């Protein structure tokens, strides 16, 4: 068990499937109370119902009030918020800039960038309120709250046909960099994770799109993407969840403002 997680309360956005679901499962195993927040309410309920210390909330973090709904659920159910994982994200079409649909651009930036920004706002406002309520009670410095943002190795590189998705993940990286100086003095730790290719449904879409862009089928693109890793395979969601749990624990107490890649050796 990791130190400093048992008994805490977390919100995980985009928590119903993929990386988010794996993080929820790992946190529950570490003794954390978990709010599974997802736009797909049925999927969120299906996951939360598997665990006695998890609840589901259907919410859209890309709209004002969406992230606040998840935070309020955590406080109303478990009494407080300690950990917030801004993980909700969407993929997009793989197309050249000149052919890209502006409506798809708006959708991707709405979730990946505006959703991250609004989630950070909601979580930090709650962390500050709780810190003020407990001022003078001997609460340890640096323990006012912990944020974790899901970026991507796409926030570090560029690739043909991927300008919109990669720009959205570069923006998440930028938000992290700005939060570092803002939140440290408030006793709030913030970090980011940058997964490479993770074996999830989101990656299936990219296999198809990148394959079409390269003139090969999805199966061939998968083989090429797996072969590009020195390890020779995609990562598993549970491997990403293990890193996320560690960054949120007391064992990573000096990790702040870091974007930690987990790419099997493919990150630059």
Automatic annotation (TrEMBL):
Entries under Pfam families matching the protein: adh_short_C2
Gene Ontology molecular functions: oxidoreductase activity
Top-rank taxon, per record: Bacteria
Family note: Belongs to the short-chain dehydrogenases/reductases (SDR) family.
Gene3D superfamilies, alphabetized: NAD(P)-binding Rossmann-like Domain (3.40.50.720)
Range of residues in the leader sequence: none
Matches recorded under CDD domains: SDR_c
Name of the protein in its database record: Short-chain dehydrogenase
This protein's UniProt keywords: Oxidoreductase
């Amino acid at each position: 068990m990791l130190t400093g997680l048992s008994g805490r309360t977390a919100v995980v956005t985009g928590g119903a499937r993929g990386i988010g679901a794996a993080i929820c499962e790992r946190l529950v195993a570490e003794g954390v109370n978990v709010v599974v927040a997802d736009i797909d309410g049925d999927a969120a309920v299906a996951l939360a119902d598997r665990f006695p210390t998890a609840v589901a909330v259907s919410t859209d973090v890309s709209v004002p009030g969406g992230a606040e709904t998840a935070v309020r659920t955590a406080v109303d159910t478990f009494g407080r918020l300690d950990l917030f994982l801004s993980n909700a994200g969407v993929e997009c079409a793989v197309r050249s800039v000149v052919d890209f649909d502006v409506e798809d651009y708006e959708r991707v930036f709405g979730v990946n960038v505006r959703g991250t920004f609004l989630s950070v706002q909601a979580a930090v406002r709650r962390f500050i309120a709780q810190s003020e309520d407990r001022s003078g009670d001997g609460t340890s410095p640096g323990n006012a709250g912990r944020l974790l943002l899901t970026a991507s190795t796409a926030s570090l590189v560029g690739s043909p046909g991927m300008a919109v998705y990669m720009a959205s993940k570069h923006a998440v990286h930028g938000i992290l960099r700005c939060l570092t100086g803002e939140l440290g003095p408030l006793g709030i730790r913030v970090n980011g994770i940058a997964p490479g290719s993770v074996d999830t449904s989101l990656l299936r879409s990219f296999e198809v799109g990148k394959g079409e862009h390269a003139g090969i089928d999805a199966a061939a693109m998968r083989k090429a993407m797996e072969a590009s890793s020195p390890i020779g395979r995609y990562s598993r969601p549970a491997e990403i969840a293990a890193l996320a749990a560690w960054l949120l624990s007391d064992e990573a107490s000096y990790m702040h403002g870091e974007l930690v890649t987990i790419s099997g050796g493919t990150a630059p």
